[in-house]
Amino acid sequence: TWKWVVGPMFLYLCERLVRFWRSQQKVVITKVVIHPFKTIELQMMKKGFRMEVGQYIFVKCPAVSKLEWHPFTLTSAPEEDYFSIHVRIVGDWTEGLFNACGCDKQEFQEAWKLPKIAVDGPFGTASEDVFSYETVMLVGAGIGVTPFASVLKSVWYKYCHDATNLKLKKIYFYWLCRDTHAFEWFADLLQSLEAQMQERNNAEFLSYNIYLTGWDETQATHFVVHHEEEKDVITGLKQKTLYGRPNWENEFKTIAGKHPGSRIGVFLCGPEGLADTLNKQSISNSEADPRGVHFIFNKENF
Hints:
Elements: H1 2-23, E1 27-35, E2 39-46, E3 56-60, E4 70-73, E5 83-88, H2 92-100, E6 118-123, E7 135-141, H3 146-162, E8 170-177, H4 183-199, E9 206-212, H5 217-225, E10 242-243, H6 248-258, E11 263-270, H7 272-284, E12 294-301
Parallel strand pairs: 7-8, 7-11, 8-9, 9-10, 11-12
Antiparallel strand pairs: 1-2, 2-5, 3-4, 3-6
GO biological process, one term: superoxide anion generation
Cofactor: FAD
Subcellular location: Cell membrane
């Protein structure tokens, strides 16, 4: 028995030593941005840090807890000179981080007063393969939209730098959210992409649909009243926000009809139930003919 135990224990100890070594490397918080609904953005720098789109890191803040590590998806793009995470204040640890960064104070916080941060990672996810396809469907549920912030930023940087060599030609983006709390910071990114794509006369590059799944009848009535306005009353985007849940069968059939003979990447960051639905739709809408359309499903759950 001891022979079977010693090997895994040795590998585990090696992993712990590597994590300890990583945690001792200096991380500098360059900016703390407070977004609406108690969401903060930490922009950081670390020597030798290399990332890809959609990856995540483990974060420890000794001022809050000397032992706790928490995973956060990176929301910055590899092309940027910093890496960032968005933290929504939903528990004791995140509340402690919020206060340690001075976000509970009205006055400006000096950089030297910001807490020390330890970072382990980055670690890979399925979203890294998004540039392997010409057409992709990105589906985020709630806070699961964060990996796609990194993806969309990186797509834009690559598109501006050399659009002709970018294999990715079409993005279908879906965001399902129970309420509007997360819209504030992410809508700014979509507004920027929308405006810049229109300036380059390529507004069709990104198609996005935002669904509010937790609306009541009063809110739905307000939506109908303002539906004819040029911009959406919630997000400020030209694409109108929808309420309810998408009809995935119709969505898959429509996309399959527009891209015959293509390999379409389907990327999800969301709950297991939605993953089962999208996986079944990917299988049922893929053709048996190798030359036909095929949906390749990729997921990460939270």
